[in-house]
Design a protein that fits this description.
4 helices, mainly alpha, fatty acid transmembrane transporter activity, membrane, TMEM14_sf, elongated, transmembrane helix
Length: about 120
């Protein structure tokens, strides 16, 4: 499975969570952080998909990987610390757990060589 199949839904989840935090509690911080991380991950997913469609590799793939890893590490650590302090599952515990799982997936993808090279199937 290619990384953008995880990155794009992960980015949408964070973006939706930021909007939900703003609508429900009026938290501008939730909107800024959720929107910022969500937008960064959507950009990374788009770069990764574009790179995959154009033969893989290159600067776009490297930039996408860096954005994905940095976002997942930051969210895992920051939300994990927040969960440890507050013991509130929502949102800190859930975001920390999801981010940790996504980070494990990214590390797996890097260790297995990243996205595979796209080879179109010809109809003959």
């Amino acid at each position: 499975m290619e990384d953008f199949y995880v990155t794009i839904p992960y980015g949408l989840l964070l973006l939706a969570g930021g909007v939900a935090g703003y609508v429900k509690r009026g938290s501008a911080a939730s909107l800024a952080v959720g929107g910022g991380f969500g937008a960064a991950l959507l950009l990374a997913g788009a770069l990764s998909a574009w790179s995959f469609g154009h033969g893989g590799g290159g600067a776009a793939a490297i930039l996408a990987t860096v954005i994905q890893i940095v976002c997942a590490v930051l969210l895992t650590v920051v939300m994990g610390i927040r969960y440890a302090k507050t013991r509130k599952i929502m949102p800190a515990g859930i975001i920390a757990a999801i981010s940790a799982m996504v980070l494990i997936f990214y590390v797996y993808k890097i260790s297995t060589g990243g996205n595979k090279v796209y080879t179109p199937v010809s109809v003959e």
